[in-house]
Amino acid sequence: MSLLRVCAFTKCLNRRSLFERCAVVRVSRVDRCQLCLTRTNGAARRIPETLLWLQQRNFSSLIKREDGKKRALERFQLLDVLEARIQQLQSDVLDVQHVKVQVIKAPSSGRGGPPGRGPKNKTQEKTDFPKSAHSGTKGASKSQPSRWMEKLSQEKKNKIKKQQHLQQKIQKTVDEKPAPKAKKSKSSQMLPGTSHKIISSAAQKTITTVKRNKGSMKLSDAIRAAVSAPVTSTAAAAATATAAIPHKVSKGKGKDSKKQVPSREGQRQSAKDAEARAKEIAEVEELEKRLSQQVSQWASSTNSERLVVDSDANTCGDIQSSLRSYLEACVFAGDIERAHQFLLSQHRTMNRRKQLNIEMYNIMMRVWAKKGTLSHIGRIFILVEEAGLKPNLGSYCAALECMGRTPNCSPRVINRCLSQMEEDGLSVDDLFSQCVFRQDERDMLLRAVRTVQPDYQPKPNTTLTPCASPLVQDFYSQRADHQYPKLDFSQEELQERFKRQLSMEQACTVTIDSVEVAMPVTENMTKMRELLAEHRSQWQKTLLQALRESKMILAKTNTKDYRLNLYPYLCLLEDREYVDIMIQSVSSLPPSGESLKILARDLGNRLYTKYCVQQKGRNQIVEKLSNIYNAYTDLLAKDTKVYDVLPREQWCQLETEHSSGPTLQGDETHWPYTVTVELGTYMVDLMVKNLKINSDILNPACDRKLIPILYHMYTFRSTRQVGFIKPHPILTQMLQEAMETKLTFDSYVIPMLCPPVPWISAKFGAYLLTPTKLMRAIDGATQHELLLEKCQNLHAVLDSLNQLGTCAWRINKPLLDIIISIFNDRGSDKLDIPPPMSEAPKIPHFNPQDPSYTSTEKAHMKREVIKAKKKCSEMHSLRMDALYKLSIANYMRDEIFWFPHNMDFRGRTYPCPPYFNHLGSDVTRAILVFAEGKPLGPKGLDWLKIHLVNLTGLKKRSSLQGRLEYANSIMEDILDSADNPLNGKKWWMNADEPWQALACCMEIANAVRSPDPTRFISHFPVHQDGSCNGLQHYAALGRDVIGATSVNLMPCDVPQDVYSGVAQQVEEFRARDAESGLKIAQVLEGFISRKVVKQTVMTVVYGVTRYGGRLQIEKRLKEIDEFPKEYVWDASHYLVRQVFTGLKEMFTGTREIQDWLTESARLISKSGRTVEWVTPLGLPIIQPYHRTRYQVLKSTMQHINLQISHDAKERPDTVKQKNAFPPNFIHSLDSTHMMLTALHCYSAGLTFVSVHDCFWTHALTVDTMNKVCREQFVALHSQPILQELSNFLLHKYCTGLLAEVKNKKYLEYRRLLLLLAKVPQTGDFDLQQVKESTYFFS
């Protein structure tokens, strides 16, 4: 209970007498805790005189009318308890000094008030906190004590006993020199000027003290003070043990230590404890020394220093984003008055003013700067000062721009502005190098500056910071041997392609032909298409009118200026553009419906994309982008000179040369997730209410009435009720029967028609105009963007993404035609071509009210209906996915195209187009080939044959020579598959990847039949796949010889298959248990195979639990027809235990590293921090797993409950943080290896793309790519990766805590310190052997 409520209750007991007996404590405003201060501020109002009202206000209940004497007695006793509780709370709060506080006497008049609201003429007295509770009345002493008093008395006795026990324990066990006594302190062990806290656990209770320094404490002094504090021997032993074993073990040790008696064994044990304590102190002192040496380096390191995300700055992040996006929307829509009034209304109220930042004031300054009204900007500067904010570069830029637009502006005014800017530590050069300009703002700024400094020239920002990572320093500094590849296009062709791509992105949508157009058109199809076209035209008119009426209502109902509403967002585009987006979403709605939240999010995102594209057009970015891109093509075209710079470097140089005009890297605010969903929900509501159709359109026998084509309904997903938007069956039937020939996509869905814009920062790259994030994140998560913005050296990461994006592709047309023919026939489940909906099972219809059905039959029929509906929904989803991919491929069949890339938060790279890309299924991969062809050369044909055998899934344990011989032995089947894929022997259909196998058969056939196979120009990508890549990284980290051999890091004559190795070991365990008579081991005889254990072995390295592994094995066992189904449960339980045991024996180093990572993440997240680290290439990574909070989004349709698990204000989710850290860390390493390989392949002139740990290149350059791949793996793991991780984590999570160690649980802090410093030991494996390993990637 807070002090405020105690004081209020004191008043309600007796307004005069009690205040004379017991002074009410009033803590000064400076010394209050934040919680009490908040409560006090929130309750600063006069308390009415009525006692009954006061009791109801504070406690929501009435005290029954009883005997007055008895009630007074209980009140006094309760008051004693509450006063004691106040002291207990104050004494237990850490870091609170025993200072003098002000106490006021109660006013004698009848009217009272909250503490601090008494009459001004009352004198103030100063007193100490009372050391014991004050007694009540005589009646209280005579009567039987209540349960409150008994509890208080018992609590006091326990507390005294604990203190005495601790004092005795400390005197016996502490060998160090005792600390000097603190004056007026309850504990003799406290240092001067310190506070204390008892830290209790099942093992020990220890008093830890740290001296408080008013100045800054040095790192070494802080650690020394923390370590030299009196600690019991059991605590030291427990803390040491917790670095390696669970906490429960230390509890047990603590209990044993209490039972020790003085004896020789006890003395020996004491000596051992002292020795262990001394060893621990020495270890911590050594750690202190190492940290002290490195802390200065860390402090100056850009990577480390800039990676700390300021949580305080993010406290109002969502609110500030909402306010800023609202202001920008108002300004873009031309509603300046609304924006101005909104800013003023936010500024006038203190609570809302706190949510404003300088950028929001700058938005309005920019508006007035465009209008040349300097007086308005001056008023905003006054508002900024009132808000306690400091003008930044954007503020002065707007002011100077306005002066540049003002004719005959006084130089004295400009000089005054420049002087003020210099006083704030800002320079004119900073304005031109750091500000983001729109339209002609830069030119106006330059005009203003040259009014007072006629010869001023902005300094070009040509300083390129060298890459800090030692892995790529030679790559950037030694370029003499680099041969950057050129594209097979002239400069004119590339410029023409740029115009086409620009036009497509400006339109924001692309309409293409569906591959179903080849089907014969029936009379019914024609009729349905005409009906749909007619109704769409009517729906557009209806929605247009409804939208305009709704906007008029919204514009008039905004009675409070400080309230956010959707009106500005509905004025960003033309009304018809909103309607087109809504109509488009109706056509793409699945028959089973879509979640309202997902549908609303998609609609909101489409609006945001259109808004961003139009904003760039208005800011005159398009013209400047065209000029720079046309010059950029000089680097890529084949008919221009050879450059020795990378695409990113060339683009930055061109931006410097074209400095005039707007900045290409805009500062647009991303709409918050809540705004996007709310806007989308508003549009869905318009659609549901206004889109209607006649009920008799398909069946004239029905009564004619208008019915909605969309329904808002609810369904259950697990235990949650979810709002759904479902199309009417009439609309679904019309769409299915019409089989329309056109599909409309957002422009970013289509691959780019020109090379992507190179990534030059976290905010600019990939598409020309479409907004794209460098790092993918959950909707609403911003911590990744903040980290990337603060990280100044991402050159290697950006250059690798640019290399992947510059690879040109084209369509394998012969194969595409075969796939489309099967797709338009009846599909094929075996070949992964989804069948049409005509092949879907019919949903059974029955009347649940029919008495002829028994309850069992009804239940069975209901299950059949649910099963059929689920099957239909899955078939529709798969069919539409295939339709989209094949239609896009067919649209691009005669084009050359590119895939821009970005990455997830771990650094793994992905193509931006979501449907059709080389990360897709076997079908989409088979359709894609390199646009550039290269001759096969002497070994290219052999690599094609080996690649074909790899695609079949056969000969996994064979050598490369064995695979080649097998391919030569089946050459007849290969040629037959190429010549007669659908009518021949169909050998290719039995491969693991049938479509890629068929494509490879065709390439081999063409090469073999060419006059000279070595000169045959091949466009076909050959894959080299890592051998259980996650375990390869673990084995390299731990230098584990056995593990390295199992995953082909060690050179071998034949490839080692870790899955077969584990299966063989599990079989040995099974045979042993079967001999012992274990029933399930006997049942499993003959059923343990590579396939059964493969998925579990593969995913153990990525954090799969035993529960997840059991489900995987259960699924594999169910696929075996011969295995008795009644033993599946027991068998899966048994096998998952054996698989984990086998892996633990094979990969001892892996398990140690995994446990260290897991425990580190657990302790870090338990301390309230999220786990962060930096990859060896300098990419900052943060795990976005926080405790889920729920936010209700209110709309006219329904209240949407948003589950937000990425909110940085919430505490970390410890379980997710610790389980995800090992796999995410390994993923960050495999992405680093891929990026290094990509960079060095690019410098060698190779074509290179990747699918995570599967690398692609031409058959000619496979050997070169393999060499680069192995060299970069060795280079990566030659770095002290785990030691650098330890250093980073120590710096981030430990150095910052040393100065405030008293505010933390010291034992947990020390456990984290020791654990992070104790890097797992490594084995004797020689990394250089990887360079000679043929099957490392094969």
TrEMBL record:
<dbReference type="InterPro" id="IPR029262">
    <property type="entry name" value="RPOL_N"/>
</dbReference>
<keyword id="KW-0548">Nucleotidyltransferase</keyword>
<dbReference type="GO" id="GO:0034245">
    <property type="term" value="C:mitochondrial DNA-directed RNA polymerase complex"/>
</dbReference>
<dbReference type="Pfam" id="PF00940">
    <property type="entry name" value="RNA_pol"/>
</dbReference>
<feature type="compositionally biased region" description="Basic and acidic residues">
    <location>
        <begin position="122"/>
        <end position="131"/>
    </location>
</feature>
<feature type="compositionally biased region" description="Basic and acidic residues">
    <location>
        <begin position="265"/>
        <end position="278"/>
    </location>
</feature>
<feature type="compositionally biased region" description="Basic and acidic residues">
    <location>
        <begin position="148"/>
        <end position="157"/>
    </location>
</feature>
<feature type="domain" description="DNA-directed RNA polymerase N-terminal">
    <location>
        <begin position="499"/>
        <end position="806"/>
    </location>
</feature>
<dbReference type="InterPro" id="IPR043502">
    <property type="entry name" value="DNA/RNA_pol_sf"/>
</dbReference>
<protein>
    <recommendedName>
        <fullName>DNA-directed RNA polymerase</fullName>
        <ecNumber>2.7.7.6</ecNumber>
    </recommendedName>
</protein>
<dbReference type="InterPro" id="IPR037159">
    <property type="entry name" value="RNA_POL_N_sf"/>
</dbReference>
<comment type="function">
    <text>DNA-dependent RNA polymerase catalyzes the transcription of DNA into RNA using the four ribonucleoside triphosphates as substrates.</text>
</comment>
<comment type="similarity">
    <text>Belongs to the phage and mitochondrial RNA polymerase family.</text>
</comment>
<keyword id="KW-0804">Transcription</keyword>
<dbReference type="InterPro" id="IPR046950">
    <property type="entry name" value="DNA-dir_Rpol_C_phage-type"/>
</dbReference>
<dbReference type="InterPro" id="IPR002885">
    <property type="entry name" value="PPR_rpt"/>
</dbReference>
<keyword id="KW-0808">Transferase</keyword>
<dbReference type="GO" id="GO:0006390">
    <property type="term" value="P:mitochondrial transcription"/>
</dbReference>
<keyword id="KW-0496">Mitochondrion</keyword>
<feature type="region of interest" description="Disordered">
    <location>
        <begin position="105"/>
        <end position="202"/>
    </location>
</feature>
<dbReference type="GO" id="GO:0001018">
    <property type="term" value="F:mitochondrial promoter sequence-specific DNA binding"/>
</dbReference>
<comment type="function">
    <text>DNA-dependent RNA polymerase catalyzes the transcription of mitochondrial DNA into RNA using the four ribonucleoside triphosphates as substrates. Component of the mitochondrial transcription initiation complex, composed at least of TFB2M, TFAM and POLRMT that is required for basal transcription of mitochondrial DNA. In this complex, TFAM recruits POLRMT to a specific promoter whereas TFB2M induces structural changes in POLRMT to enable promoter opening and trapping of the DNA non-template strand. Has DNA primase activity.</text>
</comment>
<dbReference type="Pfam" id="PF14700">
    <property type="entry name" value="RPOL_N"/>
</dbReference>
<feature type="compositionally biased region" description="Polar residues">
    <location>
        <begin position="189"/>
        <end position="202"/>
    </location>
</feature>
<dbReference type="InterPro" id="IPR002092">
    <property type="entry name" value="DNA-dir_Rpol_phage-type"/>
</dbReference>
<dbReference type="GO" id="GO:0003899">
    <property type="term" value="F:DNA-directed RNA polymerase activity"/>
</dbReference>
<dbReference type="Pfam" id="PF13812">
    <property type="entry name" value="PPR_3"/>
</dbReference>
<feature type="region of interest" description="Disordered">
    <location>
        <begin position="247"/>
        <end position="278"/>
    </location>
</feature>
<feature type="repeat" description="PPR">
    <location>
        <begin position="357"/>
        <end position="391"/>
    </location>
</feature>
<dbReference type="InterPro" id="IPR011990">
    <property type="entry name" value="TPR-like_helical_dom_sf"/>
</dbReference>
<comment type="subunit">
    <text>Homodimer. Component of the mitochondrial transcription initiation complex, composed at least of TFB2M, TFAM and POLRMT. In this complex TFAM recruits POLRMT to the promoter whereas TFB2M induces structural changes in POLRMT to enable promoter opening and trapping of the DNA non-template strand. Upon metabolic stress, forms a complex composed of FOXO3, SIRT3 and mitochondrial RNA polymerase POLRMT; the complex is recruited to mtDNA in a SIRT3-dependent manner. Also forms a complex composed of FOXO3, SIRT3, TFAM and POLRMT.</text>
</comment>
<keyword id="KW-0809">Transit peptide</keyword>
<keyword id="KW-0240">DNA-directed RNA polymerase</keyword>
<feature type="compositionally biased region" description="Polar residues">
    <location>
        <begin position="134"/>
        <end position="146"/>
    </location>
</feature>
